[in-house]
Structure formats: C-alpha cells, structure tokens
Input
Amino acid sequence: ETGVTQSPTHLIKTRGQQVTLRCSSQSGHNTVSWYQQALGQGPQFIFQYYREEENGRGNFPPRFSGLQFPNYSSELNVNALELDDSALYLCASSWGPSRETQYFGPGTRLLVL
Amino acid sequence: AQKVTQAQTEISVVEKEDVTLDCVYETRDTTYYLFWYKQPPSGELVFLIRRNSFDEQNEISGRYSWNFQKSTSSFNFTITASQVVDSAVYFCALSEADGGSNYKLTFGKGTLLTVNP
Output
C-alpha cells in the first residue's frame, strides 16, 4: 500500500449537483495530483497542487476546482455535475512537483445519474 | 504534445509464459520520465518501474524487465514466467514538464493482461 487514502470510495450523485472528494497524501509528500479515469481509458490529468497552490492544470473546465491544506491533504470539487463526469477519480502524491514518482490512492468511483 | 500509445488492447497468456507489453511515446522534450503502472480490478494504480530519458540501460527486477530505446521511442515491459496474480490492466505513462515546474503524467489507454491457469 502507498499510504495515499481517498474518501469516499463510492458516490452517486444526480446531474447538476456538486461533489467534494478528499485525498490524504503519503507521509512526507507535499504534492498532490488529481486524475480522472473514464471506463476503459487511461487516467487524464486534472490538476496538481504544490504547497497549497495550483501548480498546473489539464484540459478541464473551471467547474473542476481544488484545494490543498497545510497538512498537504487535498480536495477535488466538481460543480454542476454532468453525466460524463462519471468516472474513477484518482489522487496521487509525490515528494515535490517535478520528476518524482507519483503514488496513487485507491480512487473514488463517482456515478452521475 | 506528449502522447503514449499502447497498441495492444488485450493479451491473454497461460501461466508461466513470458509476456511483453508494448509502449510507444511522443515528446518534444529531451528530459522526461517513463513509467509502468499496474491497475488490478480494485482500481488502485500500483507503481512498477521508472526510467529517465538519460538512462537507456535495460534492467531486470525479479520477474520484471524493460527495454527502453530512445531511437524508436519505445519503452516495452516484460513479465517473465507470468502468474495469475499478474492479471491486471497495465499502463505506460510519460512525465515531462508542463510548461513550468509541474510534471504531469500522460497515460496510454492500457493493456488488459489475463493470465490463465
């Protein structure tokens, strides 16, 4: 196990609602990256947080937002949920934002109805 | 833009066979990192191996080995004497600077490996 934890494990929401997903990074890691993995696809980079600041963003709309706390844990917030937001959301932590191996948590499975 | 291609969608082998997973990548950078991750049915991505672009030395780690060739932009991964527990989806990933200090991972679509007893 990597020591990266995510909550909740599963979530069901309806279209238009808002959701918050949580991630605790591995001890000693100060960087958290979030990925979305649709069924049958590889993970897609959403954004990265380093020392409580957003440090890079993928091709996702502004309704995807995040936070990182002083203890380096992180939240992913998605507003105005759409059916296509149904996916596995993976959090990864690393020691630093550059060149370091990212270690993944077990993910949160989100279903939007 | 960086891109990772895993041409093999599914592979099925019998236990104890050797299996090679192919990965081809595209990048404009001279400094980058390549990874293989394993995703069992539980969903968690498990880190397996990492190479940087300056080190083309191929290595063996237990039953795993990899062949990194910059000339063909390939980073293939081999499992020797496969076991049923190796059944999973395997992802090849490329990491390079995203215009700043951020190194994001770009993943291929994955190869589903099924090892039959």
Summary: Residues 87 and 114 of chain B are 5 Å apart (CA to CA). Chain B has a mean pLDDT of 91. Chain B touches chain A through 29 residues (CB under 8 Å).
